[in-house]
Structures are given as structure tokens and as C-alpha cells.
């Protein structure tokens, strides 16, 4: 069996029926947090540079380097085209400021050219995505260091049609494994580990928790990858759909390639395709086995890669990986029946 070599065409591979979206961190996904500040109109444009220089000394915007100090006035036809951010409300000497005099000490900033203050809301954190940037900029001008890959991924356009065809094929292999597991009385979840450098499948597994409650499809697949490298802890020989291929071979001999000294540490750099979002145990096993990317179909109520937790984005873990959801998600008739 060499599913990795097959090329899907036409209706066999309807890659337009699904979109792979990235599962981003909470920081990248959350709404824009706003904090209140005092701003004032710049009455004399020629004073702008001096005002900014003096305000930066009196009220430095520590931790808010993403905020621009000056913005164009939003009101059309205003006699004062510029407005300057004076200070955060929390930094003001008196939070009930009514005049620019009470905001600026006489020996700090010369008031020349500044109008009376008013309250504005500014973004508390630098935007991490284009969506956050566009929302933040509606309140106050904000700088943005765009990660173009994230922007394209959020549009669902990161993967080209040929790449999607390959992804489709790998997920179909995982679905076939899920079906085989279900026939043997297991939960209908299938998984495939692929080397993306060669598009070669390293291991295929399905849920085997009838034997052992820990043998979720992902755990089975990781153990099969380890076995392909001469390790592994378990035998899944009685499950013909669970198999591995040694990295140097073209078939599934279920014989580890002991001479392959180039083998990575378990799943380093590999991709995992799994029909259902992994649980916490499986997600942590993916961290420990150094998986490169995870692609899953449907979400799970206890899912640890987006739904209940986002293990792959935990900063205090020593390995992180990309996660994409929605692969073949529109194949509801298949997925709902099996998972
Ligand atoms: Zn699991």
C-alpha cells in the first residue's frame, strides 16, 4: 500500500470543500484590550515636535511602544488637524483632569500650542494579527509588525491547491484507519504521521483503547514511529491497519531500519494528521515527541489543541508546533459517522 504516492484528481479530492485554519494562541486570538488616556489637540502645528519631545520625558509611554504619540484629528474640518497623546489616565496627577494646566506641571512641558485635554482609549498591547491591528487602529494609531504567514493562514490561503491535495490524501488515510478501528470496536479515530520533506507516510494508527485505555490513535501512531526507529513499547500486530514504514523504505515492512542513523528524535519535523482534535495526554505526547505540525479534522469538547486548551502555544513548554484545524471538516457524512 502506497497511499502517499497516489495523486487525487477531480471529485476524488474535493479540496475546495474544506479550509485549513491555524489554531493560534489566546494572545493572537483575543479582542483588543483598551486603556484610557488623555489626549489634547495641537493648536499650533509648529509646536508638535517640541511637545512630543517634552511629553516623552514627562510621561514616557513605558510598555506602550506600539502606540503612536500623535494622530490626525478624526473630525473633518477641525481647525486643529493633529492630536497628541498626553498621558495614560493612571499616570495623571489627578484623574479628574479638567484642564491642560492641571495635567502639565508648570516646569515640565510648555503649554503653548496645546488645547484642553479629553479622554481617549488606546490599545494596551501591540497587535499580533492584522485583525487586531485593524481593530486597534480604530481607536488610536498603532504600529504593527506583521507576520505575513499568520495573515495568509487566517485567510485560509496558506496552502496551495497541490499542497491541499496532499493534505487531503493523508487525512483520507487517517479516515480509513479510523474506519478500520471502528470495525474492531474501537473509537473511530485515525492518525497518520508523515515526513513532509518526502511526503512519505511513516506510521498509520487508529484508536486501540480496547486493549489499553492509553492507546488513543495519536499515542498508537507515536509508538509506531518509535518502533520504525528501533524503539517503541507496544505491539499492535493484531491491528493490520496500524503499521509503520522505516524512513529508508518504500513499503510498510514493519521492520525497523536499524541502520538509519539519520533518523530524527521520534517525530522531529514530522506532520501528524488526525481525524479528531487530540486530548491533553496526546497533545503532551506530541510535545515530548517533537512533532512539527498537527492537522486535525473536527474539534473535540476535551480537545487540547484549540478547544479546551492550546497546549501547542504554552510558553513554558520547551517545544511548540503549528496546528491547523478543519482538514476535510466538510466531509461531515464521513467524520460525523466515524468520530
Ligand atoms: Zn488522546
Strand elements, count:
11
Residue stretches low in confidence (pLDDT < 50, at least 5 long) are 1-11, 332-339
- Tell me the name of the CATH class of the largest domain: Alpha Beta
Q: What is the H-and-E element order? A: EHEHEEHEHHHEEHEEHEEH
Radius of gyration: 28 Å
- What is bound: which ligands? zinc ion
Sequence of strands across the biggest β-sheet = 1-11-10-9-6-7-8
CATH superfamily label of the largest domain: Cytidine Deaminase, domain 2
Summarize the structure in words:
The chain has nine helices and eleven strands. The two termini are 24 Å apart. It has two domains: 34-124, no CATH class; 159-247 and 264-325, Cytidine Deaminase, domain 2. It has helices spanning 26-29, 48-58, 100-103, 130-137, 148-154, 161-183, 217-228, 280-288, 332-338; strands at residues 21-22, 34-42, 70-72, 82-88, 118-123, 190-195, 200-206, 243-244, 271-276, 293-298, 322-325. It is elongated. With 339 residues, the protein is an alpha+beta fold. It has a seven-stranded mixed beta sheet. Residues 216, 218, 278-279, 281-282 line the site of zinc ion.
Topology (SSEs and partners):
Blueprint: E1 21-22, H1 26-29, E2 34-42, H2 48-58, E3 70-72, E4 82-88, H3 100-103, E5 118-123, H4 130-137, H5 148-154, H6 161-183, E6 190-195, E7 200-206, H7 217-228, E8 243-244, E9 271-276, H8 280-288, E10 293-298, E11 322-325, H9 332-338
Parallel strand pairs: 9-10, 10-11
Antiparallel strand pairs: 1-11, 2-4, 2-5, 3-4, 6-7, 6-9, 7-8
Pfam families: dCMP_cyt_deam_1
Protein name: CMP/dCMP-type deaminase domain-containing protein
Organism: Monopterus albus
Amino acid at each position: 500500500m502506497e497511499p502517499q504516492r497516489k495523486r487525487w484528481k477531480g471529485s476524488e479530492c474535493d479540496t475546495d470543500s474544506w479550509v485549513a485554519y491555524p489554531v493560534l494562541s489566546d494572545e493572537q486570538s483575543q479582542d483588543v484590550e483598551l486603556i484610557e488616556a488623555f489626549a489634547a489637540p495641537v493648536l499650533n502645528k509648529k509646536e508638535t515636535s517640541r511637545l512630543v519631545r517634552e511629553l516623552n520625558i514627562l510621561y514616557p509611554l513605558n510598555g506602550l511602544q506600539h502606540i503612536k504619540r500623535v494622530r490626525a484629528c478624526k473630525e473633518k474640518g477641525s481647525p486643529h488637524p493633529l492630536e497628541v497623546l498626553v498621558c495614560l489616565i493612571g499616570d495623571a496627577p489627578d484623574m479628574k483632569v479638567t484642564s491642560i494646566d492641571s495635567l502639565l506641571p508648570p516646569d515640565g512641558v510648555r503649554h503653548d500650542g496645546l488645547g484642553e485635554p479629553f479622554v481617549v482609549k488606546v490599545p494596551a498591547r501591540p497587535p499580533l494579527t492584522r485583525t487586531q491591528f485593524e481593530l486597534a487602529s480604530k481607536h488610536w494609531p498603532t504600529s504593527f509588525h506583521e507576520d505575513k504567514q499568520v495573515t495568509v493562514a487566517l485567510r485560509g490561503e496558506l496552502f496551495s491547491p497541490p499542497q491541499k491535495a496532499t493534505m487531503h490524501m493523508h487525512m483520507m488515510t487517517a479516515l480509513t484507519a479510523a474506519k478500520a478501528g471502528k470495525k474492531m470496536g474501537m473509537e473511530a479515530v485515525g492518525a497518520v504521521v508523515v515526513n513532509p520533506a518526502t511526503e512519505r507516510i511513516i506510521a498509520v494508527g487508529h484508536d486501540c483503547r480496547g486493549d489499553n485505555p492509553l492507546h488513543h490513535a495519536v499515542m498508537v501512531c507515536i509508538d509506531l514511529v518509535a518502533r520504525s526507529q528501533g524503539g517503541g513499547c507496544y505491539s499492535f500486530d493484531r491491528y493490520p491497519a496500524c503499521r509503520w514504514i522505516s524512513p529508508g523504505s518504500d513499503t510498510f515492512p514493519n521492520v525497523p531500519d536499524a541502520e538509519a542513523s539519520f533518523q530524527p528524535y521520534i517525530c522531529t519535523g514530522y506532520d501528524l494528521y488526525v481525524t479528531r482534535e487530540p486530548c491533553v495526554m496526546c497533545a503532551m505526547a506530541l510535545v515530548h515527541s517533537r512533532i512539527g505540525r498537527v492537522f486535525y479534522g473536527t474539534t473535540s469538547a476535551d480537545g487540547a489543541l484549540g478547544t479546551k486548551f492550546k497546549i501547542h502555544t504554552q510558553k513554558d513548554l520547551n517545544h511548540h508546533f503549528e496546528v491547523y484545524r478543519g482538514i476535510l471538516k466538510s466531509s461531515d457524512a464521513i467524520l460525523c459517522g466515524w468520530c
